[in-house]
Amino acid sequence: MRLSLCLKMKLSPSLLISLLPKRFIKTAPSPPTTPLPTRSNTTSSSPSSFTLQFLVNSCGLPLETALTASKKFHLNEKNIHKTQSLLHFLKSHHFVDTHIADLIKKMPAFLGCKVENNLKPKFEFLAANGVAGNLLPQLILSNPDILWTSLDSTIKPSFKFLKSFLGTNVRIAAALKRCSWLLRVNRNRTMQTNIDLLIKEGLPLDRLAKLIVSNPRSLLSKHDKIVYAVNSVKTLGLETNDTMFIYALGVKMKMTDTTWKKKIEVMKSLGWSEEEIFGTFKRCPQILQYSEKKIRITVDFFINTVDLGPEILLVYPSLFCLSVDKRIRPWYNVINVLKSKNLIKREKKFPSLLLMSEKKFLENYVDKYVDDVPGLWEVYTGTANTKKKGT
Fold first, then answer.
1. Structure pTM?
2. Name one GO molecular function term (predicted).
3. Is residue 103 part of a domain?
4. Domain total in the chain
């Protein structure tokens, strides 16, 4: 009663938390059976003190977040064992406290989900089809509406549709990791229309599968947008059977014509011709996916610090994919220190050296000399924020 009175008096969260009873701090799970509520009948303008207590003490929500959630959904004290069972069920499927707290923030009404007739068969189907382990909570958190999505009329048909192109559950899980909305793909005629277009344009089925896995959102775009992007990429000289076509398509679809033109102008201002830019784009479409600022910073470092001409980035366009602060500069500093100590006798060209794996770089240029060169590890980690192996 005291807490209800305090809620009506609108006391501060810090005072409210001090009044919460301790009886909800520990909760024991029971066999799950909770009816699935509709979101329309679980909202209220005033918070429930019982719901508030449970959200704070049993679900770990901060008081202010719990206050907001308790206005949208009320728990029944007499049936609280059902909610406890729901939480136990989630934790048995790799949901940790932070997952549950985040899910409550996004959709408090999920605490009324029915386990036996809704979540259990749904989770079992997902797990049997590759969505298991930590991927399951990740998928649900990215799209909580899955909890209300019909298994038989939506999720299963969506898996069947995806499997017709991807073939394996591993690929389907990889695609879902990037776009959980694919679980409703059977209701999205746009994706089918876009796929039909790409097949008609001659995109091989194995490349289509790669596109669905690597960039599924592009296939959920408006049909006119993907038609325009396909034509634009083909105009640049990339055909649908080219390996880089799907990557170029993805880059083109992520920006407006205005942004595209600005990036071209930036690269031209740095010394490249349109022919060189588009020739490089055909080999490495990612060069135009980065911001104008990122492009300028990368070019500036190689010209003014490494003392190489801008043409080096046409030879090694994948260097644009690397962070100047986290990789290029620290590695450059390490090489300079080793050169100053005459420890490098046959030095590779720095740009090609940047493309080796970090493990190999550590073995060949850091761990190998760290005991002989004081401060070498600090030079390497100065901006990379990388911990030394074994520490």
1. 0.73
2. nucleic acid binding
3. yes
4. 2
